[in-house]
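Lab channel / #folding
Pinned by the channel admin:
"Please post every new chain as: sequence first, then the structure tokens as a reply. Keep commentary short and put observations after the output so the thread stays searchable."

First post following the new format, from NK:
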Amino acid sequence: MSVLFANNLGKEYQMGDHLVHALVGVDFQVGKGEFTAIMGPSGSGKSTLLHLLGGLDTPTKGDVVLAGQSLSELNEYQATLARRHNVGFVFQFFNLLPTLSAEENILLPIIIDGKDPKEYQDWLEDLLELVGLADRRDHKPDQLSGGEQQRVAIARALITKPSIVLADEPTGNLDTKTGTAIMKLIQRSSRELGQTAIVVTHDPKAAAYAQRVVFLRDGEVIREYIPEDDVPIEERLAGIMQIMQELEAGIE
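Reply from TO:
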């Protein structure tokens, strides 16, 4: 069953005298607990698609259905609630509040939603263990490494137990080892918590951890790669690299 899908999604921007078609008639759907990566060159529409799927932006045409709700039929307040209750966001630049500890940053969505953090204490403890930060909970962002800050951001995205996690280049500012750990963490949260995860990435090594890889170019979906579940990471990476080479050579 699809928990998020887009129908004939289009997005246009006016840049001076030019009309930019960021997305062109994109159909996209993802099921419960599915981990999907979105790849494509710079300017292909990856982040635009992610922002539209999460209700952070509105399409020029088409519609996004999130948790059974058509976002085009919601007003701004209703759309905000739909995002808050169903989607956890992870961004490349962490967006942590510098004056708050790791634990306080994680709990921030709970506080914003007017809920009692004490009711989430057990879940918080589980999350801190899941992301490996139980002994760093009182540290502020400037006392944490880049990888630790990204782990805080992931825990913050998971604290409300959203059905969908959207991540935009979550490994973009991290070294290879740390980036791999972050992708394994997203993969694990999807498997163990049954959450749907959609990750935008330019890195084929990161995309190899996903169950499905969707390739965009010039605002259109042009290929998909869906390996068998038991295919090892090395073979997944080889499959992704082959498709990337074919697309660069103009083979669709």
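NK: The mean pLDDT is 89.
TO: also worth noting, Helices lie at 46-53, 76-86, 102-112, 121-130, 146-158, 176-193, 204-207, 233-248.
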